[in-house]
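ugh ok fine here u go
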Amino acid sequence: MGQISCEIIKDLLPLYYDEVCSKESAAIVEEHLAACQSCQMDLDSIKATISLPEEVVEQNFKDSNALKGIAISWHRAKLKAFVKGLIGATLVSIAVIGCMVLFQWDIMKVASDVVEITDVSKLSNGSIVYHVKLTDGYGVDRLNYDMDENGNFYVTPLRPIIKTKTKFDIGFQNEYYTLGEIEKKILSRKIWR
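structure:
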């Protein structure tokens, strides 16, 4: 086989140093190094640049493992914080919605034994006037009006689940109503339902 140029040997030197070239290539490099002082100096230069003391290599592995451990614990802490925040936000949302349902959503019908209707009168224009008073002392925030197919008229007072005492004896719980006006409102659908 002919003489191999120094350029080819210099390309093979890193592979030769790392011991990843074939046996034939290693034999060619060794044969050339025995005769060429310049390529031998290049190999020595590669050894000086690449080789690290064993303690430094071990310390680098330990440091990389420590950094991996820190990264893993940091990711776990982030996940825990996210889950805690999600649970906290969910609990706050449930509490807010629960308060709204309990204190503001008018869904409970007032018992009929609490409603006292008095002073029923018929006016000259044909409207019927009556006075409604609730005897339990709690307020009413909403009235639900309804009329069936036979023309029967129904008024249902509604309260939140947790009712509150009235400070003043005025409002839906102590007021005069005109039946004719309410029927007009029902037909025009401009009242609460």
